Amino acid sequence: MVALSKLALVSAVALLVCWAYQATQPPAPAILGAPGGPPIISPRIRLKDGRHLAYREEGVRRETARFRVIFFHGFSSTKESGFPVSQELVEELGIYMLFFDRAGYGDSDANPKRSLKSDATDVEELADALQLGDKFYVVGCSMGGYPAWSCLNYIPHRLAGVALAAPAVNYWWPLLPANVSRTAYAKLDVRDRRTFWIAHHAPSLLHAWLAQKWFRVSPIVRGERDAFTGMDWEILTELWRKQRESGQVDPAKATQQGIYESLCRDATILFSTWEFDPTEIKNPFPGGEGVVSIWQGYEDKIVQVEIQRYVAQKLPWVRYHEHPEAGHALPDMDGVGDKIIRELLLGDDEAPRGLQLQNDLHQDG
Ligand SMILES: *[C@@H]1O[C@H](CO)[C@@H](O)[C@H](O)[C@H]1NC(C)=O
């Protein structure tokens, strides 16, 4: 009897070890362009390490543009999602817009060595391959916010201006005070907390966690209703409906190489312990020759306002705009996309510097 239960225990442990080992082995990615793999249907540039980045150009022609802007898409998204800027503004200001699939998403090759730094050098190499000139503007939305921080840290000399729209925050930024982190973390749904905890403390298990079916995973990661405010949901369901109807966005394309190289890498890099802290970044424009802005909704359930305010307070050269009613869909609200771009490109001296907590999005109409 005793021997039997011991045997059962040993078998159970062996099974568990075996499962844990398998769980930590990354699945083989689907190879772009290979037989049976997803076809490559976008123009791509080749990087120094042999990988390719897929891109999409919009707006006025690159050669004649007055402004050249590179956009970083969010989580589980691609270059097809675009950015909500009006055609009138694009033509009025002469804006060339470059969208690209971040490494491992869409038609861009996966990068097994992906890091905060490689995300910045990818952008630099892309800009050089397309001859965007010495300096260019960058706009990072949501999860595309952290590559924008990377650019500010690693390639500030290449930047003409930076806008962060509802940029993702990391509860484990090295210099984030524990009380700020705790307050923000406590506001999350318990399923999000569990998932983010795994992304930080046991990143090699994140893929198995997201792939399992026994426990419900994060509404934020899944993009479910619970992750959004009522207003977000209205705006986004309408946006997604339009995107589906136009056929421009294929929701399956973001993760066509598998979620390991796209979603898991994104989440584990964002929630890792960074080698730099955003609050220690030096002002890239000490002479006021460029704008760095953060746009945040007070009601955002995905990106907590407490952390955003803390970072903005520490960086007096960042223009912080907080909308009292907006959630995570802030950039997609009427006219907000144009305001973000107008301030980024024209400076607009009316806009106050530093932390501003009142509603400045509505002041000028
Ligand atoms: C964190 O603690 C500091 C100093 O004690 C305090 O000023 C700040 O308001 C606290 N922040 C939060 C979000 O609790």
From TrEMBL:
Domain AB hydrolase-1 per the UniProt entry, residue ranges: 69-329
InterPro entries: AB_hydrolase_1, AB_hydrolase_fold
Keyword DNA damage: no
Alphabetic keyword roster: Signal
Domain of life: Eukaryota
Signal peptide start-end: 1-20
Keyword Signal: yes
Protein name: AB hydrolase-1 domain-containing protein
